[in-house]
Amino acid sequence: MSGAKKTYNTNLAKRWMITIGIFLIVQLIFIAIDGTFLEPNINDSDNLIAKFGRWILDSKLFTQWITPYSFPFFNMFMTIYVIALLVHAVRDMLSLLLSKK
Predict the structure, then answer these.
(1) What is the pLDDT of residue 67?
(2) Where are the domains of the chain?
(3) pTM score, whole prediction
């Protein structure tokens, strides 16, 4: 039984190292691109989805409150990724606590 728990903890640690590593690599790419000519050009056509996306990106949340980058899309992407990481962390903690009982 103890071998199975050790394998689960090893897989969990390995998965978290990969997840955090990807997050850090993406952040380094964002830092390198932010404020340069390499920023993506978001199409502002008359499409409803494009208008909705522009409305989200131009909201105060991504232009004034959460602003590690000058490009709002990077701020939105980082926020969504951090929220996903927090949800994943809570799920893993709950599974570890419930599996010990």
Answers:
(1) 86
(2) 2-99
(3) 0.75
